[in-house]
Amino acid sequence: MNEVKLLFRKDLWVLKNNILLILRNPARLIPYAGLIGYFFFIYTMRMKDRAKKLDNSIPEMDVNGLPEVDFATQNIVGGITVLALGFLLYQLFRATKRNVSFFTMADVNLLFTGPVKPQNILLYYMGRSILPSLGGSIIFLIYGGSQMAGSFELSLGNILFILLGFALFFFILSPIRFLIYTLHTKYDILEKIKTLITVLAVLLAIMILIPGLTAEKFWQGMFSWVASPWFDLFPFVGWSRGMMGYLVHQNLILAFAFLGLYILSYYLIVRLVIQFAGYYYEDVLEATKSNEVQRDKVKGKRENSEATYSLNTKKQLALPDFGVGAKAFYWRNYVHASRQDFHPLFGVYSLIIAGLGIVFAILSNFDWFSHKVLNGYVLVILGFYFLAGIGRASVGDLKKPYFFLIPATWTSKFWNVIKLDIVQILLFAVVMIVPSVLIAGLHILVIPVFILGILVSYMIGLCINLIPQISLEESWDRKLIKPAMMIGIFLFGIIPALVLGILVFVFTRQFVWMLLTVTIGMSFVAGILIHVALDVLSRLEFKEEN
Fold first, then answer.
1. CB-based contacts of 105: which residues, under 8 Å, 6+ apart?
2. Has this prediction a pTM greater than 0.70?
3. What sections of the sequence does the record tag as coiled-coil (predicted)?
């Protein structure tokens, strides 16, 4: 117990120092104040709307006198459940490849050499890992809760079970991954775990295919099993859904039952970890060091290794003459892409994502899917490339000495850094959208609008990541300003464009005009951000890192 108190005191001192660091510059609290202000503003507006919408409407009945199925709600619940299941299976699969670490290198260097039992260190840090999950859950509730206030009452019980359902799902994954990797290294059960994951994936696919094929239309039945109440019994995903569903069913006993299942599961995992983990230092050191390397790459402190995720690092290349000057950046990215995939311009992932779009278009012709599924997939792709822009890993190159020494304009350098990405995106967009539009019989204007929209989405995400990273030296400033930028861009740029697009869709009932409206609105946002990024880049000075 004294050892746990010592670890707790250490964390309290860290928390105190961080608070003092923030108090030295109170301006860092402005983004959080803005976030809280946004929550109360939206919450107040939603509550006014809720007061106007409250009525005693009776559900619509079918010819047999039974309530009609709300397919929209069913597919939303089922789709989110499938995404959560996919994330769960992915995390389980990752557990067979590498261990999860609850530590930093500072923890490893200071704690592992101290007079503290390794089991106590592991259990304390494993339990403490719920704090990031709770933080993410609170952010989710601040945004999502304010949006739901117009339809649901945000009572103390509703808020509590939403927080717990969201946080416990992400929290329990790390202990599970740690236990799986421990069992794998001790008993070599890799193949058995992979077989189990494959079986679960096949069963999930069957649970979507069978009700979809037996329904009048595939999209009407595809999530009827996954979205049904009995699926709440599925471990972790169903339990969290059941807890968060307290917002609707208001069954306190059921919600506490799912919470009890989580507590029992965590207790069993902890017992198994204590029994099988033993002296886990070597595995944790490896995972912790790997995490530290990845963080340094994101910060631009180390070169990105061409070996990461590459298919063949020793591949013999016969590349054309790219020229001199800023084109060296394009050459560098081209070489890395050539080793990373079977072709530098169009790889495996692009082929899979484009193929899915074409499959949706074909199935819509056979009346398995409505065009709404393909339209939704197009919007998901735009969001995916927005996230891809945020995750652009090589922005750290913009602070490297060679970026300053190459004799070319700032605009030329920046263009050549992202040129390969732009070419890859254009090729992917054309390969996916042209056959999809022609097969599904969509409006021909969807082709150029989608191509422009995907470029705009990528550039917005890239600039959101680029501007604070290259203009700010302090990591705390970057952590605070980037969320503030994203909130501002969403509030005053992306969300207004989406709302305007939805209004256009309501009046015209045409997806193409909605997509065009959203793309035009986001183009203005992208133009402003690109201008700011180039201005910040032109003022950048090289500073030698210690």
1. 288, 289, 292
2. no
3. none
